[in-house]
């Protein structure tokens, strides 16, 4: 006897469609930034702006991945793909975080090199294109801001937009300093400060998405506490094969085998216990499990005589 049920965001729903639209708008805005900065790099010959252009292009590639993942997430499930493409957002977020980390490493190396041997930078032209980049990225951040916590994919996209905005702000500050003081190392210092802000966030996102892909227990859920709660229910003798993981944002799952007294299968308590276990994992813990698969077993079938604890994660 088992049960399972889902209260999750429906693929193709207005909510998921809205997030995909926001990502598409931000992608379009970022393409404008990249084109403007490519033109600016060609007109001014600025190495700093060229570096920021490469940075923006990398992040735009990440947004393309985010839009594709957002589109896949709207596709319905099927007998061959019972969860649909819900996990695409996790994979996309991991890929974007890795891109951010790679760009951060490159920026760190380039920043140190420029501290040692600062290149000539056209400050006034740099300021003009830095302002354009910052303005567009600020608009993009506002578009994504209200939905940035919706899932891993939106978080990664928002992080990339903030990354670009900080990069543009760094360009502006460096351009002002270079124009007013001729201190060309300001460009490298600004870049290194941005690396210090972005890399820790990218590492955090990599860690969180990796936990999902490795099917670790959802953060905040104590399986020992879950087991203890279930064991405290009437007629329950043991709980084994207790596992919990996360399919995608907002979709934690749990499976368990629950051993009850043999009489439960003749007096109707098996169904009652099943409902109580389901309600327990839904309502009593910081992480609510709205999709659970619970197998109710009679004690006589337990190979350890009602003491079957094993294989817990």
Q: What's the story with the biggest beta sheet?
A: 3 strands, mixed
CATH architecture of the largest domain: Up-down Bundle
In terms of DSSP E residues, the strand content is: 5-15%
Classify the secondary structure makeup into a structural class: mainly alpha
Spatial sequence of strands, sheet with the most strands: 1-2-3
Q: Categorize the overall geometry.
A: elongated
What CATH first level of the largest domain would be assigned? Answer: Mainly Alpha
CATH superfamily of the largest domain, called what? Cation efflux protein transmembrane domain
Distance between the termini: 22 Å
Structural domain tally: 2
**Relative helix content:** 55-70%
Give the oligomer, counting copies of the same chain as homo and different chains as hetero.
Answer: single chain
Round the mean pLDDT to the nearest integer and report it.
Answer: 79
Number of DSSP E strands: 3
Rg calculated over all Cα atoms: 26 Å
Number of helices: 9
Give a structural overview.
There is one protein chain. The chain has a three-stranded mixed beta sheet with strand order 1-2-3. The longest helix is centred in the first third of the chain and has 31 residues, at 14-44. It is built from nine helices and three strands; from the N terminus they run αααααααββααβ. The model is unreliable at 3-12 and 305-313 (pLDDT under 50). With 313 residues, it is mainly alpha-helical. The chain folds into two domains: 14-213, Alpha-lytic protease prodomain-like, CATH 1.20.1510; 223-301, Alpha-Beta Plaits.
């Amino acid at each position: 006897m088992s049960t399972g049920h889902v209260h999750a965001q429906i693929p193709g729903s207005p909510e998921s469609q809205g997030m995909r639209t926001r990502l598409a708008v931000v992608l379009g805005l970022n393409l404008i930034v990249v084109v403007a900065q490519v033109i600016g790099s060609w007109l001014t010959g600025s190495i700093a702006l060229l570096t920021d252009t490469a940075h923006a292009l990398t992040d735009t590639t990440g947004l393309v991945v985010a839009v594709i993942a957002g589109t896949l997430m709207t596709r319905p499930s099927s007998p061959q793909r019972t969860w649909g493409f819900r996990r695409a957002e996790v994979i996309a977020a991991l890929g974007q975080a890795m891109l951010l980390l790679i760009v951060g490493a490159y920026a760190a190396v380039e920043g140190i090199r420029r501290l040692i041997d600062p290149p000539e930078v056209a400050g006034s032209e740099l300021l003009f294109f830095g302002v354009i980049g910052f303005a567009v990225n600020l608009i993009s951040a506002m578009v994504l801001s209200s939905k940035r916590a919706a899932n891993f994919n939106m978080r990664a996209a928002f992080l990339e937009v903030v990354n670009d905005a900080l990069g543009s702000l760094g360009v502006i500050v460096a351009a002002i300093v270079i124009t007013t003081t001729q201190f060309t190392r300001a460009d490298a210092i600004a870049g290194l400060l941005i690396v210090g802000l972005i890399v820790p966030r990218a590492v955090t996102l990599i860690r969180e998405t990796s936990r999902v892909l490795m099917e670790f227990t959802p953060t905040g859920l104590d399986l020992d506490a879950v087991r203890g709660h279930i064991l405290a229910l009437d007629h329950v003798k043991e709980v084994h094969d207790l596992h919990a993981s996360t399919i995608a944002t907002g979709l934690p799952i749990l499976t368990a085998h629950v051993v009850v007294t043999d009489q439960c299968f003749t007096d109707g308590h098996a169904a009652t216990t099943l409902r109580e276990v389901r309600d327990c994992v839904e309502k009593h813990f910081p992480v609510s499990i709205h999709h659970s698969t619970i197998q109710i077993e009679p004690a006589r079938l337990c190979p350890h005589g009602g003491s079957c604890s094993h294989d817990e994660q």
